[in-house]
């Protein structure tokens, strides 16, 4: 079984702490000032004058499209209002700004700051997070004397108020869908902002059970990783619980036919072919590894079979399982008269009959042993050594190549001065042995041998040139192509 190359895409390489710090800086730099200034009747104050709602909307509908363009956001405007005017500090200098709120057909609405030549946009989910995190201002003092004009209420952090911007779940849903996540959003929170690349990060909870962390840049498709993956990258979800994650993984695993009360889960990684692997820990029974593709169950693997996937099982005590399984395998071999004083084994996979493909290191079999053993040891057992396994495209893993080269070295004793440096099994020979290409240490050149079935002295030796001239196998090892 080939070792799977697995990857974990962990949130564009950004740490949560870095994004949160950046968010705090962004609040202070851009959202402080230009607040929603209102008079005692609640009317918006703009340029020192109150605006009626009708006047604010007219100004917003007329002026906001140009601000949207300067802000560089994608927004087909469906509603707008002017909200205030004021000052913000940029690079140490205070500048005058006008602000707007816009609703967009794409989903997310925005709070806009018009800075003249430039403009800045904050989506309404980000604005709501800022408002929730901004301490409330102290109330205005009571007038000292009767008849004195009432002071306006204190400036408040801006919030989105347009009807189209009130449903945060609906606003973020198109973003989540564009990221390819299978998620009907039931809750959303803003996780942070990175001024380095204008990345915004959100967490969403989903009715399907598994939540996601979603990254959105000004251009390009957004990206989403599920909460299990996010947790491994230090981005702990708060809207989706571990119990919900386990239940979601369990709903996929239920198609495996295995009985498992899930105690814990972890993601192991994804392969280049698009498969994703999860480890499941089961209460009171051995855990296993589940392969999925596009969110659908593909197969279940024993932890012993999955040792080359994502570092193997870590939630299950595989040593205890291996001890029991080794005893079962060796007993099955003895029952069929197959010799092996076993010192180590490794589960390589399954054959077409669903028998376990097992590699053994046997102290009494220098060339190793590969056996196809049915669960429980029932039925026939197919077995051969590591040389024949290579001829069947099965790579031995625990029987080291240098040990197998020593077997060939002994077979060449008295017939060649070759110091074996490499070999390759080319196929079966006419004598029921194997045709093997051998590479030797200089100055001896390589050759083709007929390695007998009992792995005793070789039946024949031909140089690479002799074999090619007679229409036989051609040497292909790098050491023999010089």
Offer a quick outline of the entry.
The protein has 482 residues and is an alpha+beta fold.
Report on the structure:
- With 482 residues, the chain is α+β, with helices and mostly antiparallel strands.
- The protein has 4 domains: 32-142 and 150-162, no CATH class; 242-316, no CATH class; 319-391; 401-480.
- 24% of the residues lie in helices and 32% in strands.
- The protein has 10 helices and 22 strands.
- The protein has helices at residues 16-31, 53-71, 124-133, 168-178, 227-232, 242-253, 318-335, 386-391, 401-411, 464-469; strands at residues 44-46, 49-51, 77-90, 93-104, 110-114, 119-123, 185-194, 199-206, 212-216, 223-226, 262-270, 275-282, 285-293, 296-302, 342-350, 356-362, 365-373, 382-384, 420-428, 434-440, 447-451, 460-463.
- The protein has a 4-stranded antiparallel beta sheet with strand order 3-4-5-6. It has a 4-stranded antiparallel beta sheet with strand order 7-8-9-10. Strands 11-12-13-14 form a 4-stranded antiparallel beta sheet.
- A hairpin with a 5-residue loop joins strand 8 and strand 9.
- The protein is elongated.
- The protein starts with 15 loop residues before the first helix and ends in a 13-residue tail after the last helix.
């Amino acid at each position: 079984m080939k070792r799977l190359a697995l990857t974990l895409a962990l949130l564009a390489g950004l740490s949560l702490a870095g994004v949160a710090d950046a968010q705090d800086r962004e609040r202070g730099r851009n959202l402080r000032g230009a607040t929603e200034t209102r008079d005692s009747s609640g009317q918006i104050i703009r340029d020192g004058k109150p605006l009626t709602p009708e006047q604010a909307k007219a100004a917003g509908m007329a002026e906001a499209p140009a601000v949207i363009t300067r802000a560089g956001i994608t927004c087909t405007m469906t509603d707008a209002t002017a909200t205030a005017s004021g000052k913000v500090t940029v690079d140490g200098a205070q500048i005058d700004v006008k602000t707007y709120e816009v609703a967009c057909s794409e989903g997310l609405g925005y709070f806009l700051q018009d800075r003249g030549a430039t403009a800045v946009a904050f989506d309404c989910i980000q604005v709501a997070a800022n408002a929730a995190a901004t301490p409330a201002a102290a109330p205005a003092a009571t007038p000292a004397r009767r008849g004195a004009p009432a002071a306006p209420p204190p400036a408040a952090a801006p919030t989105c108020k347009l009807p189209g911007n009130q449903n945060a779940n609906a606003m973020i849903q198109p973003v989540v869908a564009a990221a390819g996540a299978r998620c009907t959003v039931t809750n959303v929170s803003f996780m942070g902002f990175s001024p380095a690349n204008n990345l915004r990060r959100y967490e969403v909870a989903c009715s399907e059970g598994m939540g996601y962390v979603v990254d959105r840049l000004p251009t390009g498709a957004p990206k989403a990783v599920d909460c299990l993956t996010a947790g491994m990258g230090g981005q702990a979800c708060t809207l989706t619980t571990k119990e919900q994650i386990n239940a979601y993984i369990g709903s996929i695993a239920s198609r495996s036919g295995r009985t498992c009360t899930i105690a814990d889960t972890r993601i192991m990684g994804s392969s280049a072919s698009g498969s994703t692997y999860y480890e499941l820990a089961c209460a009171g029974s051995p855990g296993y590894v589940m392969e999925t593709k596009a969110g659908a169950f593909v197969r279940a693997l024993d932890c012993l079979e999955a040792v080359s996937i994502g570092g193997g099982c870590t939630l299950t005590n595989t040593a205890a399982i291996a001890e029991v399984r080794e005893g079962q395998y060796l007993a099955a071999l003895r029952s069929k008269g197959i010799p092996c004083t076993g010192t180590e084994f490794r589960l390589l996979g399954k054959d077409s009959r669903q028998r376990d493909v097992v590699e053994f290191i046997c102290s009494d079999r220098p060339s190793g042993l590969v056996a196809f053993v049915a669960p429980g040891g029932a039925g026939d057992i197919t077995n051969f050594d590591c040389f024949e396994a290579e001829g069947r495209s099965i790579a031995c893993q625990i029987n080291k190549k240098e040990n197998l080269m020593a077997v060939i070295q002994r077979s060449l004793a008295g017939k060649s001065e070759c110091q074996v440096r490499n070999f390759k099994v080319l196929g079966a020979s006419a004598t029921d042995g194997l045709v093997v290409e051998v590479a030797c240490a200089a100055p001896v050149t390589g050759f083709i041998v007929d390695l007998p079935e009992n792995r005793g002295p070789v039946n024949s030796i031909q140089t690479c040139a002799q074999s090619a001239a007679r229409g036989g196998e051609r040497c292909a090892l790098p050491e023999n192509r010089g």
